[in-house]
Amino acid sequence: MSIFEYNGSAIVAMAGKECVAIGSDLRFGVQLQTLATDYKKVYKIHDQLFIGLAGLGTDAETLSQRFAFKHNLYKLREERDIKPSAFGQLVSATLYERRFGPYFCQPVIAGLEPDGSPYLCGMDSIGAQETAKDFMVAGTATDSLLGICESLWRPDLGPEELFETLSQALLSGQDRDCLAGWGAVVYVITKDKVIARTLKGRMD
Prior knowledge:
It is found in: Cytoplasm; Nucleus. With 204 residues, the protein is of the alpha+beta class.
């Protein structure tokens, strides 16, 4: 078993019209044994920016704390919140610093730029970036998530349509992966608010 599959995860981010959404499953397990069913893998950086961390749970916790620390330093120095595109570069550089002993995590970044345009970015464990205009997936359920996202996503979705589309894709995708599941949490980010909702999924 790959170290990336040790804890299991399913993370999806999707772009809409002046909104963006990111969601993850809630299972925390050690290989095939489930230990907790309320483990969120999406972390808030600020109101317009979230990061999902798929991979080894301990490294995800470490990285989330490092990114929060680096954002706080940036905010003290610049007196403003970091832009999602700049944060993507920061995450990439942080991972690449440790390329000879990497963190076993695949980040997915979702946020709104100051002009309201959605920003989606994903990368591997050493920070090789890839941006997308539609959706980005990570975790052990990647194969099934990609297929269902391609089927359901369409351009210029509103916040409620985006929530519905991402939720259906995430629940369908994680149901086909025994290492992810047990419900999900979804965040929809718009210019003036963040909507957080918890979904019930199959409990097997």
